[in-house]
Specification:
single chain; globular; metalloendopeptidase activity; six-stranded mixed beta sheet; Cytochrome Bc1 Complex, Chain A, domain 1; alpha+beta; 4 domains
């Protein structure tokens, strides 16, 4: 997919023109292939005596992609589950297969597949459709004749067990438990809209939340740290699949997990699902249809793309109400409808793959050796003339990369094309039982959105590292008269979700000042407003932190998630760490969301006794869930605003007993460096991580948001040519924010 979005009509035309040209009429010059694909080149392009090495952006990118154990597992699973056709290969390129690709093969692939006969066009929004179609016809379609691309994917057949290896993870919560096991089942064709809808619902009932059968059977016994990286229903391929398994498990538990999966399927066939859980899932779908997310049009495009590409009906996919109505009617006529599906697709289905993965201490050495052997084989086949030619082509590429590109061919916006004013959203500022509230009337499609910011200013320093854990578990441990299963069920039945997250907001005028807190966030259908605030009241007044085994499960899942995220978001961790000693907000961001937090959660996950953690969570609750340190925001329709304000007032009265004046450890806006305790300083840090990708960042203390120089620092275009084109890094750029200018790259 090549998605884009904009609110400006002229900008949309310009972007569409550029995208049509890039997709259907790319230059695909040989030099572009050398730079973006792969090439043999002297390590130092200006020194013919330096060793020959593999270079190329995509080559480096795919090496990086295969440094992530979760990606390695997911890739092997798809390749082995669909062994007969396009899904049996790596779409981005197996790293050691990329050096076998030729420029001619690339051009032929593009000519065959990047053709309007093999394309789908999707637009969404308030701009005239006729204008879009006219532009697409004139700039692309009219220049081609229809062909038969012959891209139909045949059915797959599989039924086996397999095993793969990966590199050990030094940050795993338990170094002795790093195995993964998953069973994947081939399902039906994704073009059957109702069957896909049913199987997606069935997947959620089987795995989502603490009330689901597989969560109870696999997660809660603490056999592993979390579900396998591939889990649930996947409708992105021609034939859908369902996967279930565990990661962070011991090798000796392999057979036990297989037996649990089989037994759980039998239990579902026997007992089915509680009616209340099905109602909660249908409620979730109702909210999803009403919630207008950011980039809503692009989300719709992604939703229909897979089925549409295999000649499914995209309009039928969007008629979700019809599928819901048919589902309800079918279930009414046959109460065992879902159990019959489980029996057919899981118990009786022989088209399945059981894939295990275990760490290999010499995994990276094997990968490096294979690459070196491939390189030497290429080099040994070269004559002196070939090597001279490679050197000269390297110089040509370097010269081309150093030239300023002619951008005159690109369409551009004029100042007159841009709306000179920004729409102002009116808000009303008031109070509810003394708590500041912002009310905003919006066309929310029958939903009410609630936000609350609770200050961290009174929190003692020794509790700060625990705040992300508190945020993660406070809505998942039970509250009031509800245990954690009942709480989860009520949240799914009555809300669109309830979350708590850390917030660090730099001041817009002063670098050494910031605000800190946790953000409470939830939404609900208008009819469920009292229920949503009642759940928040129970969380404020009586959260349950004393369920030790439940806490242990959540701790292990959180630690595993953080460890898994490093290879995927290493550049973000590098930037966070680089800014630690430059601003107060940077220091707090590292504590709450950087490598310091990753290491801290690993230590917590290794604790055999969590009693001290429980006592700490109780202390944090007294500081954070305090109306005296709180402000709120409500977004809903004008018709519902009065009732919402009354419900918020009632909620504030319910939690009034949590009020307790505390002396701030830091004032609301903090003067950090002026105290003389800390000064910005230069610091170099290196983390040795178990994968062959280097994430590098350098941060520089600059100016706050409102400074007159800020806008000039927002561009990072020159880095693309230097870091990616010349340097070969598959990722690189810069980010400005919070008074820091941060460079980053990964290769």
């Amino acid at each position: 997919m090549y998605p884009f979005s904009t609110q400006n009509g002229k900008d949309f035309q310009n972007l569409l023109s550029v995208y049509l040209d890039a997709a259907f009429f790319p230059c695909l010059r040989e030099q572009d292939f050398w730079q973006e694909g792969w090439r043999l080149e002297n390590e130092n392009p200006t020194d013919p005596n330096s060793p020959l090495v593999f270079k190329g952006v995509v080559f480096n990118e795919m090496k990086g992609a295969f440094s992530d154990n979760e990606r390695v597992y997911a890739q092997h699973l798809q390749n082995k589950l669909y062994p007969d056709h396009t899904y049996s290969v790596v779409s981005g390129g197996e790293p050691l297969a990329i050096p076998d690709l030729t420029w001619e093969q690339l051009k032929q692939f593009h000519a065959t597949h990047y053709h309007p006969s093999n394309a789908r066009f999707f637009t969404y929004g308030d701009l005239p459709l006729e204008q879009h179609l006219k532009q697409i016809e004139e700039e692309a379609l009219s220049k081609f004749e229809r062909i038969n691309p012959n891209t139909e994917v045949p059915p797959s057949h599989t039924g086996r067990e397999d095993h793969v290896t990966c590199s050990p993870d030094a940050l795993a919560p338990d170094p002795a438990r790093q195995n993964t096991l998953c069973v994947s089942y081939l399902l039906g064709d994704i073009t059957d809209t109702f069957e896909g809808f049913t199987l997606s619902l069935l997947s959620s009932l089987m795995i989502s939340g603490p009330n689901s059968p597989f969560y109870k059977a696999l997660i809660e016994p603490n056999i592993g740290t979390d579900f396998s990286s591939v889990v649930g229903y996947d409708g992105s391929t021609k034939e859908a699949s369902f996967s279930i398994g565990l990661q962070g498990m011991a090798e000796e538990d392999t057979e036990r997990v297989k037996q649990i999966i089989s037994q759980t399927i039998n239990d579902i066939i026997e007992s089915g699902f509680e009616e209340e859980r099905i109602d909660a899932l249908l409620h979730k779908i109702e909210i999803q249809m009403k919630h207008q997310s950011t980039n809503f049009g692009l989300s719709l495009a992604s939703y229909i793309a897979s089925s549409w590409n295999h000649d499914g009906d995209p309009v039928e996919l969007l008629q979700i109400n019809d599928s819901v109505a048919k589902f309800k009617q079918t279930l009414k006529e046959n109460p065992r409808f879902l159990q019959d599906k489980v029996k057919h697709y899981f118990k009786e289905n022989t088209h399945r793959l059981t894939l295990s993965m275990s760490p290999d201490e010499v995994y990276l050495e094997k990968q490096a050796k294979a690459e070196e052997e491939k390189l030497q084989k290429k080099i040994h086949a070269l004559s002196d003339s070939d090597k001279k030619d490679i050197y000269e082509k390297g110089l040509e590429l370097l010269a081309a990369q150093s030239k300023t590109q002619d951008a005159s061919c690109l369409p551009a916006l004029k100042v007159s094309d841009i709306e000179p004013t920004i729409p102002v959203t009116p808000v009303q500022i008031s109070t509810a039982v003394g708590v500041p509230v912002q009310y905003c009337e919006q066309p929310t499609n029958g939903l009410v959105y609630f936000r609350a910011m609770c200050s961290l200013n009174t929190l003692p320093e020794d509790l700060r590292l625990y705040v992300p854990l508190f945020c993660s578990v406070v809505t998942k441990m039970g509250c009031g008269g509800l245990d954690y299963r009942q709480q989860s069920q009520q949240m799914e039945l009555r809300t669109g979700g309830m979350s708590v997250s850390t917030q660090v907001v730099p001041d817009s005028t002063q670098l050494d000042m910031y605000e800190q807190g946790v953000l409470l966030s939830s939404s609900c259908l208008e009819r469920n407003l009292p229920h949503m605030f009642h759940l928040w009241s129970d969380i404020f007044n009586n959260p349950h932190f004393d369920e030790v085994e439940r806490l242990r499960v959540l701790v292990m899942m959180s630690a595993q998630e953080l460890a898994n995220g490093i290879s995927y978001s290493g550049h973000m961790y590098a930037m966070t760490r680089a800014g630690r000693h430059l601003t107060p907000a940077g220091d707090l961001n590292e504590t709450l969301g950087g490598m310091e937090q990753v290491k801290f959660m690993k230590r917590v996950a290794e604790l055999s006794d969590l009693s001290q953690v429980i006592r700490t969570l109780v202390r944090i609750k007294k500081h954070l869930l305090n109306p005296d340190n709180m402000r709120c925001a409500i977004n809903t329709t004008p018709q519902k605003m009065s009732d919402t304000a009354a419900q918020l007032e009632s909620f504030m009265k319910d939690v009034a007993d949590n009020r307790k004046e505390r002396k701030p450890v830091r004032s609301n806006i903090i003067e950090w460096f002026s105290t003389g305790k800390k000064m910005p300083c230069q610091m170099k840090t290196f983390f040795q991580l178990p994968f062959p990708v280097h994430f590098i960042s350098e941060s520089i203390r600059t100016v706050p948001f409102s400074h007159h120089d800020y806008a000039r620092m927002m561009t990072a275009k020159f880095l693309h040519g230097e870091i990616r084109e010349k340097g070969g890094a598959y990722g690189g750029g810069a980010r400005m924010g919070g008074g820091l200018f941060s460079f980053y790259s990964y290769r």
